[in-house]
Amino acid sequence: MNDHHLAGIGMTSQRTRNRLVQRLRDAGIKDERVLDVMAQTPRHLFIDEALAHRAYEDTALPIGHGQTISQPYTVAKMTEILLAGGKPLGRVLEVGTGSGYQSAILSPLVERLFSVERIAPLQQRAQQRLQTLGLRNVRCQLSDGTWGWPEQGPYDGILAAAAPEQVPQSLLDQLADGGRLVMPVGGNEQRLVLIVRHGEYFSRKQLETVRFVPFLSGVQR
Question: Which CATH code fits 59-210?
Fold first, then answer.
């Protein structure tokens, strides 16, 4: 992939990217670290070429296999919440790699990122994209998201891109003391939830309404 394709032209250009970032700022995203990474990340690489002209709209887009690349505002908001604990994030778990876009946003902001995806073709393509972008601190694994990746934990942060009816206990168990978990929870009506671990106690805060694909078990090859 050449530098010209990475940079984008027309509807995938840096100017278009900057307009998206301004919309995110206007929508209430305040963390400049997040906004800077959003401005630098070529979202058009994470979707099919036929949809590249829509890459910098603030909307979710299909990526195949019944999955979507999340709306940029949602990616920015969840990242901002994860970072808001005020301390550096050493080890972070992402549940639901999908296209790899959220991974690309998190990678420059954390020390090490471990990302699991249950759909093999998505996992393989995401890993290739992340390697193309030179994001060396991300490790990907084909895995049922319910399991997380316990061998690499505990985690200072966990972010999930699919909505279970309730938070899996296995993910809570992998959260380090003081760690933050951000994920959508619910069925027809979903809310973004922030959970913070305090020893054996977990505080829980419901945030804004969101819409994500359901949290499913099992690996799809």
Answer: 3.40.50.150
